[in-house]
Amino acid sequence: MVICRRIALFVGATLAAATAGAQVKADKVACLGQPGCDRLSNGVVEIVLPIAFGPRIMRYGFVGQENVLGEADVKSATELGEWNARGGHRLWHAPEGHPRSYSPDNAPVERELSGNTIRLRQAVEPRVGIEKEMAVSLDPADTHVTVRHVLTNRNLWPVELAPWAMSIMSGGGTVILPQEPYGDHSHNLLPVRPLVLWAYTDLSDPRFAIGPKYIRLRVMADRNEPQKIGIGNKPGWAAYHRGRTLFVKRFPYDGAARYPDYGSNCEIFVSGPFVEVETLGALQRLEPGASAEHVEHWYLFPDVEIGGTEATLDAALKPLLPKTDTR
């Protein structure tokens, strides 16, 4: 235990030293075979955004280490053209529908660099009439990334939708969602939030572990049956643990808002090695020219061991989650 504490102190000191006086630098790299992708780095973490398609984030990780975002060669033929999952982080609009949700993002995007922020804007989706924009900002001194998602209605009529932010993660890890604070029956007579199931959801699947404090979903390459759940996530965070790296995203919850999918502002989808950690904004009626915004805050933590029980997971998360609180 003393050795573990010394290692943790060393890692923390190293990270602090690397971030002291750090600045965000922008350059160009290749990603998914495309040259000229934008990279922002502060010496601790880096993010990579293509401009040949999107808007997307294709990489987020510690410099010189694994990408926490995954790649996915999954294509879908639609009336609007071929949609390619590719991987990374993307922006959709909910509720899901085919072919509307699968409008291809295969064309180059407008790109604007300003300081530590890259703004990407997609051309208006043909026949769908929605314009997608993503602004990604890297903090100069730590792992914090702010991702602003904007949908604008370019139709001549109102549209009801919700921004839908979807992160394809590198497979083999565990998704972690918070439960509402546990309470005894005699003092808690009313429900505290929805747990939403799809027609193909099977809660007896061994990939699920549902306890009083957390919902966990393991990603297993040999289990190809798709699983999906949604929740009304009031604590406003979701995490993904792979190896010894913990990825945390923060997002808002508005108790007065109306969310898609029976009140879900957070959803998980898994099939084999493919896994998505998704968050949703509130449903809004957008008049022509009006926009809806949804913001996520991302964080990375190294050398995190969550163990196999709720107790070990709880012990690992407790000192880390306060560092991600954006409220």
In short:
The chain has 327 residues and is mainly beta. The protein has helices spanning 2-19, 260-263, 310-317, and strands at residues 25-31, 34-41, 45-49, 56-57, 59-62, 71-78, 81-87, 89-94, 110-114, 117-121, 130-138, 145-153, 159-168, 174-178, 195-197, 208-210, 214-218, 227-231, 237-242, 245-250, 266-271, 274-280, 284-286, 291-301. It has 3 helices and 24 strands.
Describe this structure in words.
The structure is a single chain. This protein has 327 residues and is mainly β. It contains 3 helices and 24 strands. The strands form 4 sheets. The chain has a 10-stranded antiparallel beta sheet, with no helix packed on it. The two termini are 34 Å apart. The N terminus is likely disordered.
In round numbers, the mean pLDDT is 93
| Major β-sheet profile | 10 strands, antiparallel
Secondary-structure element string = HEEEEEEEEEEEEEEEEEEEEHEEEEH
Helical/strand content category: mainly beta
Strand order of the largest sheet: 9-10-11-12-24-20-19-14-17-16
- Tally of DSSP helical segments: 3
User: pLDDT below 50 for ≥5 consecutive residues: which ranges?
Assistant: 1-21
Tertiary shape: globular
Strand content: 35-45%
